[in-house]
């Protein structure tokens, strides 16, 4: 392998055998036979330039080699093959657990997509309520969602069995059951991607953000269950209670309602996920033993 230098003298066009005389015969003073010919000043300068060029080239090559070695020694000591599982941006949920994303999760710690299969809670709750028809419900939690089905069921049981919930009408009783055949409706806790697909089956668009209700199905979005909504102004437990009562209210035939006025409690059938419209957060359909509601609005 050859190397180039900053200066490469042009090759002599004369034949190889004639090169020495061709280089020295111009303006050379006469000499006697056997006497070496003195080099002309121009030739001596050319030789000095060549020596300087060769020396400069050697210095540059040595400096380059030293710099390369210093860079190599100062380089990182981690492996070259970096992990492709970089932290995901919460601002772009499509990067988390989308198609082919495996088990990636958002920084907040819950998956945004799952397998679409569910695990049912075991056991049954006592019958809650004093009178009226009995509505049985079942609890299912999406697998690999990081949530325990029995724990979620216990939270839902406590909400629907509270005297401020729908049983306060005195015309309804509720009970959780494990058998699908015995249930009047099922309450699902599903990842955003799965909940979106489930809601879309009924023609509802949730954009992976909201929960929904279809006939016989109450679908709670895991993202809302884990972090509520911005500027809700109340603890997460209040939002969780609200979303259970709101979606189950739809299953019981309730429609959306409006905020009665600034500073007033928000009706549980108000779409509090989209904002309170001046009201304050409220998770219960009954306040101080009285059914609390607002003006009906369009939609369900």
Automatic annotation (TrEMBL):
Q: Where is the composition biased (Basic and acidic residues)?
A: 20-30
Q: Where is this region: Disordered?
A: 1-46, 84-132
- Residue limits of the DUF3152 domain? 109-277
Q: Does the keyword Transmembrane helix apply?
A: yes
The alphabetical list of record keywords is: Membrane, Transmembrane, Transmembrane helix
One Pfam family from the record: DUF3152
Q: Does the keyword Coiled coil apply?
A: no
UniProt-recorded name of the protein = DUF3152 domain-containing protein
